[in-house]
Structure prediction request, 260 residues.
Amino acid sequence: MTGRILAGRTAVVTGSNSGIGLGIAEALAAAGADLVINSFTDDAQDHELAERLSAEHGVKARYIRGDMAKPADCRALVEKAGRCDILVNNAGIQHVAPIPDFPAERWDAIIAINLNSAFHTSAVALPMMRAAGWGRIVNIASAHGLTASPFKSAYVAAKHGVVGLTKVTALETATDPITCNAICPGYVLTPIVEKQIPDQMKTHSMSREDVIAKVMLARQPSGEFATVEQLGGTAVFLCSDAAAQITGTTISVDGGWTAL
Ligand code: NAD
Prediction:
């Protein structure tokens, strides 16, 4: 997808100061969209990142703090953006433990950040999109929105929920010029995945290379991580005119994981 096909649009990307969210924000900006980037941190680097994206891509880019664990912050993020033609619900966290040992507080946080936030931001964004006469919602689910793994109860439940919310949002907007889809990445080497490697090395008594090849990518037939650039390109495609009749579905970017 080339050219500034999203010029004049404003994109709000939750959890976009690193990893996939940042990769998607970069791709949307390269396609000409103005940006609102977000995290819960509000560090100097967050504001510098917005300045860099603005300068590099010739778009307006702002950082707005908001804790996606909190419904009021989710809603305020979109309200403060003032305009939201493209909403990318990307913020997410992970915790890995068997169900009897899974801390209730981690369950609640994962469901709040990975699932509930998408409901709250969408609730505010949809009237804005209807008023503007155009809108795109891109929910970042996961291969774990379509399949399961042991020890990831909250994450798998949240991501299956995101896929369900995506379908309902698409049906409620089916006769509007608005689409809602979910991208389902397999493993992408971002901080959320980096953090899991030392634990997996200990659990399996394996080297870093073996954990990557034999544990993480064992379910990814391509044997390669997906990249944030590939996810950015997929998000831009979903925002393009070519995707205007694609709604309520999932696009897997998982090297064949869900074909197994
Ligand atoms: P990451 O840790 O690099 O990024 C997570 C982002 O969410 C960060 O920008 C962080 O600041 C933000 N965030 C976390 N808690 C937040 C909160 N309470 N409020 C606001 N922002 C918050 O991880 P990532 O791999 O880029 O993950 C992004 C999304 O992609 C997540 O929803 C994740 O579940 C999904 N995903 C990742 C992979 C993968 O292999 N990396 C695979 C499938 C799906």
Residues 189-224 form one domain.
